[in-house]
Amino acid sequence: MESKDGAGQPSLSMSSSELRGSLADAKHSINGSEPIVNRGAKNRQPIRSYSKTTVMTEAGRQPWYNGDGHPIPPYIVGVAGGSASGKTSIAKEILRQLPNVSWVAIVTQDAFYKPLSEADTRLAFEQNYDFDHPNAIDQDLLIQCVRDLKQSRAVQIPVYSFTQHQRTNDTTYLYGQSVIVVEGLFVLQNRELVDLLDLKIFVQTDPDVMLARRIRRDIVERGRSMDGVLEQYFRFVKPSFDTFVGPSARAADIIVPGANNEVAIDVIAQHISKQLTRSYSCQLSQYTPYQNLGKERASDRMVRLVLGMSLNGNSVHAVEREPFSQPPDPKNAEIPFSLDKIRGILPIPPNVFIVPQTAQLVGLLTTLHDVKTGSGEFAYACKRIGAHVVEHAMSLLPYRECQVPLHTGGSYKGVELDVDHLCGISILRSGAILEEPLRRSFPALPLGSLLIQSSNSNYRPLLYSVKLPSFVRERSTAQTTYVFLTDAQIGTGAAAFMAIRVLLDHGVPEEHIILLTILASAKGGVWALYHAFPGVRIVTGGLDPDLEEYVLPDPQQPSTRTSPKSSACKSPELDQRQPPAQRRIFAISPGCGQMGDRYWGT
């Protein structure tokens, strides 16, 4: 009943009578051969399925870029095999087995079936259209999507209806996955697609089991008849396997059995984890400018490193420290506070714009810094400073001349915004402080958000959710979009760094991103952002001179005491309490504390 083809793989060779006689024998193995074993999946959240594209996100995503802001590509796995061989089930189990890896996805080749003409649709409903030929797949679109994912870009995956034999109007938004599995009949058949894969897997399953699964699936899920399924199988499925699918196993790195495959899945998961560990360790060691700097103060070292690069050919301008320790002289209250009247010159990058320091603005900044300020007064000061920041940022947008008619006749020559799309994106949660000032200036402004939180063990950011306007998700319109990116303050700039990378991955040009903040440090973050993204402009309401490093106990790892088993062998070295685990954080100095907590009174 089973023969070997030129690739050494089992080919489907079964007569109709043999088929009907073997269905009963194969039926009991359908469920038993399922490769899902759910080991190591207790901490996973439920899988969310959109069509056949599966997305798994359980925790914040680690940074996927280096210190220069360049993205590190995700790990792409290709899984091929015969129809109903268990490709999707094996792909899900591989992802479940990955330890400490979040933001993974399965992209199925079935989503990329070509749209059918009216005549082809009739053939499909009559089960006379060959869906098992490589030409039925939109290979160009699939390859482009995989290539974009390889470059950490956001993509829209088509949603295909197997009952209507057409793509629907919906798409599946996919972005940010660190591991992506592409599964389908012809994943290893197209050389251009194979070259984009980091690991190539072929699933080999008993033909009886594959056929029994296909019959059950097509009858139950797709509403087809037994005779129609069998006719389609012998007419299209079997020849396709012999001609295209089976021979593609030559391109595989590993062949996985369709049943009893726990060991193979463990080996694959360990291999992927090893590759991810290497890329993450390389990326994280370059990500932050504050690591491995020895005893020298990190903030000072960072300013010297990046400033040294800036002085070698690039222009650098300076701003003076804001004298928060010295309140304004009441006698000169009517004179605006200009930069040349403030002591202590600090260099800042040329892409940083500071709102002119008038007496009113310095007074509001003084309110922010005062530890005795209540939440209501603090919120009011934030909104007023935010209004100044937004108004200043508006001057950085492009404008064009226009003529408007006058009530008295004639026309007035003025200007209007020269942008196709404009939106505000908040870095939650403190970035939401600037949403109200944005709304006051642009009442109909579309808003989005990025939930980025620091990890419990260190200051590295973790990406939890991406909610962007539709025209930002579409690359064609994102390229003409201007974005007001908001964060309450910029210290290390880690969250802003990640947020900018997200927008760039969606196609927003670097020069179209304007970062709005109430307070920033002259050291550290603004220089890291300038080094990686010199085209991004930063508008801040105030600038504090320093960035201090603090070492705090890690609440997740309390101190431990070691004690010998016998009191006779006690020693001071063994009996002493070990110091608690520590974590390093950086804070703006003098700063105004946790702005989100003070703003909302939490």
List the helices and strands and how they pair.
Elements: E1 2-4, E2 10-12, H1 16-32, E3 48-50, E4 53-56, E5 75-81, H2 87-97, E6 104-108, H3 118-125, H4 139-150, E7 155-161, E8 166-174, E9 179-183, H5 191-194, E10 199-204, H6 207-220, H7 226-245, E11 254-257, H8 262-287, H9 298-311, E12 317-320, E13 345-348, E14 352-354, H10 359-369, H11 375-394, E15 399-405, E16 411-417, E17 421-428, H12 435-441, E18 447-454, E19 461-467, H13 470-473, H14 475-478, E20 481-486, E21 489-490, H15 494-505, E22 513-521, H16 525-532, E23 537-544, E24 546-553, H17 572-575, E25 582-589, H18 595-600
Helix pairs in contact: 1-6, 2-8, 6-7, 10-11, 11-12
Structure description:
It comes from Malassezia psittaci. Pathway: Pyrimidine metabolism; UMP biosynthesis via salvage pathway; UMP from uridine: step 1/1; Pyrimidine metabolism; CTP biosynthesis via salvage pathway; CTP from cytidine: step 1/3. It is an enzyme of class 2 (transferase). Pfam families: PRK, UPRTase. Belongs to the uridine kinase family. With 602 residues, the chain is α/β, with parallel strands linked by helices. The protein has two domains: 285 residues, Rossmann fold (3-Layer(aba) Sandwich), CATH 3.40.50.300; 266 residues, Rossmann fold (3-Layer(aba) Sandwich). Helix content is 34%, strand content 24%. The protein has 18 helices and 25 strands. Strands 14, 17, 18, 19, 20, 21, 22 and 23 form an eight-stranded mixed β-sheet that branches. Strand 7 and strand 8 form a beta hairpin. Helix 11 packs across helix 12. The longest helix is centred in the middle third of the chain and has 26 residues. The N terminus is likely disordered.
